[in-house]
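User: Structure tokens for this complex, please. No commentary.
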Amino acid sequence: MIENLTEAFSIFLTLENVFIVFLGVLVGTIVGAIPGMTTPMGVALALPFTFTMQPVTGILLLVGIYKGGLYGGSITAILINAPGTPAASCTVLDGYPLTQKGEARKALDIALYASVFADFMSNLALILLAGLLASFALKFGPPEFFTLIIFSLTIIAGVSGDNLVKGVIAATLGLMLATIGLDTIYGTNRFIFDNWNLMSGLNFIPVLIGLFALPEIIHYFSKSATARVHKAVMTGAGAGMKEFKQCFKSIFRGSIIGVVLGAIPGIGGAPAAFLSYSEARRNSKNPENFGKGELEGVAAAEAGNNGVAGATMIPLLSLGVPGDVVTAVILGAFMVHGLRPGPLMFVENLPLIYALFIGIMLSSVYLFIIGKCSIKAISRISEVPNSLLYPIVVVLCLYGTFAINNSTFDILVMLLMGILGYLMMVFKFPAAPFLIAFILGPLLEDNFRQAMILSEGGLGILIRSPICWFFWALTAVSIFLLIKSKQKNIPLAG
Amino acid sequence: MTRNRITGIFIFVFGLLIYFVLIPYGIKVPKNIAYVTTSPAFWPSIISVVIIIMGALLIIQKKNNITDSDAEIPTPWKTRAPRLLIIALMLFGFYSLIETLGMVVPSIVLIFSLMIFSGHRRWRLMASLSFFIPIILYMFFVYIANIPIPLGIFEF
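Assistant:
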């Protein structure tokens, strides 16, 4: 053990490695903060640069970008209501209202603290619990995934505002929109109507940007100049230890949720963020403040989102199974250097694994430093008058949307979603349930249908294991509590 | 009739439209489906039924004091509608020009027009922001991110 650790330090401790982790986190933060530039895109772009590097150096560069990207997505989500990544869409729910209240710095600070803490917890889990979590993750089949997503969807009630019916309608519209594209099992067309642009379905990012950033901007420009008083949005004071302590429970819970879900291949940061947010709201003394600028909401979303970072490496390193697109690219980097992640690597290349762990831990420190140094400057964006900021944001969204697939069709989708989002705003339909359902919808349907194929059409498979029972029980309890709390707000004509 | 009821009727009819028109014509169901639950149309059908039910619930829902769903929007629609039309024209105009003029030149015009439209009058600042922001974005995406931003007729 000591020998391996000493060798690991000798592999890691070079100026190049120490710098490359810093560079990775910095680049990742910038990439994540640009709407349209996704973390997988950043990691994929950096992959060719790693070919000539030492294995540890190259892989740490990619891991650094990944971690920075997860945090960076929250910056634009908080400041301009345009999430840089799907996972950051949960941060929007309370982050942007906080900016509107003049507390952008506080929101950015708590997002950073939650991100760093969750990232650190995730790294610890990776180092200490890789084997245990990997074997637990392998117990998740389609029925378990299905029940987990069903439970995650109960958050819709929490973000529906005062009218649950409208929230459910918004969610069903999101679910319906997610069915567009080629059917994943039979390969037949669904709502394509001979438009080949729709074959792969609608991309997340144009829908995200269209639904969140554009309606606010359209609303601003639609008001007459006299009605359009620029709110003197002050960046305000930052968050300190007091706020961190207040949000600690949610941050800790979110980190655990992120770690557990991150270890399951194919889940990703978005469900973790939403589940963490939902749990924070459920356990909060002020659940009614969620969605209106609650600091704990930002903390929970970011903790859930960043908690997956280290954990997604668990199935990759211990089983050789990439959990998402980013870890698939990182797997590629391993293979380019002649390494094959999996149980054998822990026997044959243990010092290299330990060297990676050291670099990964260092990335958490860099994340804090880079975040802290940039927040003061970045948060000044919220002081720019809307008359100057919004036109720039529109163009940034247009470029970012195009960049996803080099497709002008995505721009059209974004504009149409902007109109839909504006209409939803006018008719008081909450956008968050729509988005949550749109993101979780494909996971829900795919796992349901895979379960049905496994069971030859029998619904009994959905209660086949204790994990399924656990999530069904949680769902039932959540629905019961939600109906109880909402009862007085949805009076029906008798 | 309240705004919620009208919206409810619209949602209800939309749900029926999905169930009876869009699903039969928009989804190709293979003939060899073994179980109905694995059909490509199964999930959309379930969702459309929920939409119909929720639309009906919205129709019968009593006016809610908390949601202020029927509250008037501060700026009257008379003022709002022409402005919305202009915004839509600007955004969709940008989209329609991409193929011929690319993204950079239309975005310079778009930023400047939106700034004028928002009532800003610091001309030099507006001109420099309108010019440099699209150029910087173009340089970033093309030279750093390696993503080809279309230039249309300005492509050399």
